[in-house]
Amino acid sequence: MERAGARRGPRLAVNVDHIATIRQARRGRDPDPVAAAALAELAGAEGIIVHLREDRRHIQDRDLRLLRETVSTRLNLEMAATEEMVGIATAVRPDLVTLVPERREELTTEGGLEVAGQRGRLTSVVGTLQGAGLPVSLFVAPEEEQVEAAKAVGATAVELHTGRYAEARGEAAREVLGALIRAARFAAGAGLRVSAGHGLTYANVEPVAAIPEVEELNIGHCIVARAALVGMERAVREMLTRIRGARA
Predict the structure, then answer these.
(1) Is 159 left (phi over 0), alpha (psi -120 to 50) or beta?
(2) Could you count the other beta carbons within 10 Å of the beta carbon of residue 170?
(3) What is the C-alpha to C-alpha distance for residues 179 and 222, in angstroms, rounded to an integer?
(4) d(CA 215, CA 209)
(5) 106 Cβ partners below 8 Å, 6+ apart?
(6) Under a CB-based contact definition with an 8 Å cutoff, are residues 149 and 118 in contact?
(7) How would you classify residue 116: left for phi > 0, otherwise alpha for psi between -120 and 50, otherwise beta?
(8) Does the pLDDT value for residue 1 go beyond 90?
(9) Cα 77 from chain centroid (whole Å)
(10) Rounded-to-integer distance, Cα 58 and Cα 56, Å
(11) Of 3, 31, 50, 196, whose CA is between 20 and 30 Å from 63?
(12) Would you please indicate which residues are annotated as catalytic (active-site) residues?
């Protein structure tokens, strides 16, 4: 039986947070991340991602509610492991919850969730979410210890943080890619579903897309930046061409 994603490459899920960032710059109505999500799906995206932050710097509660009503593929809610967010997730019922670290002063998520150091608390949060029928993924560094901890606290999936890979150059990039490959293989061997994301661009996505165990790539800023110039549908299709060519 052919492994999921092995023939045509991993699925693409598009993060529309930064459509909302542009809107919030003027506290207006446009551009609307709900409309952007619809265009991304029309272009072939198989998932939509939003990160509802504590400070509501981009995505708003209204966006999440409307996206739950309109997304026809899969809605992935990224969130901190807080009581407030657990309540919102169980009320809105996204198709997947991804627990991520969050600091108010950061520009974007800076690293993977420290799972190994907070197993007790995360076991409780994951248990509550899964008890409500919500699958849970953890956003982690590509390290065996963190992947193993994600499995231990009850997650059914991990998203491997690709930020270090995106920033590295030359031999360093090859070393980090090797770590991603090993972590993906380890996670899949542990029975976890594997996705990857953070800092991926049209220029660097193909080596990550070629990793057989990676079922989904989660990409936002790069696509939104390209969409500002050529439109969301073209930006998504161009990324899909890169992804699907990686395993040709």
Answers:
(1) beta
(2) 7
(3) 23
(4) 9
(5) none
(6) no
(7) alpha
(8) no
(9) 9
(10) 6
(11) 196
(12) 51, 78, 198
**What are 202-233's pLDDT values in tens digits?**
999 999 999 999 999 999 999 999 999 999 99
Residue 56: which residues within 8 A CB-CB, separation 6 or more?
Answer: none
Count of other CB atoms within 10 angstroms of residue 156:
16
Torsions phi, psi for 43 (to 5 deg): -85, -5
Which single residue is written with the structure tokens 């710059």? 25
Kindly write down the DSSP assignment for every residue of 3-45, as one continuous string: PTTTTT--EEEEE-HHHHHHHHTTTSS-S-HHHHHHHHHHTT-
- Amino acid in the structure at residue 223: I
For residues 78 and 80, give the distance between their C-alpha atoms in angstroms, rounded to a whole number.
Answer: 7
Give me the helices (H) in 93-220, please: 119-131, 144-152, 163-167, 170-189, 205-209
pLDDT at 234: 98
* Other Cβ atoms within 10 Å of 231 Cβ, number: 13
- Dig out the tokens for 147 from the structure: 């992947």
Q: Give helix 170-189 / helix 144-152 axis angle, nearest 10°.
A: 30
Domain annotation for the chain: domains and CATH numbers: 11-243 (3.20.20.70)
- CA quadruple 154, 97, 5, 186: dihedral sign: negative
Closest by CA position to 34, among listed 20, 44, 47, 22? 20
| Element containing residue 96 per DSSP (H, E) | strand 96-99
Supply the pTM of this predicted model.
0.92
Give me the count of residues in the chain: 248
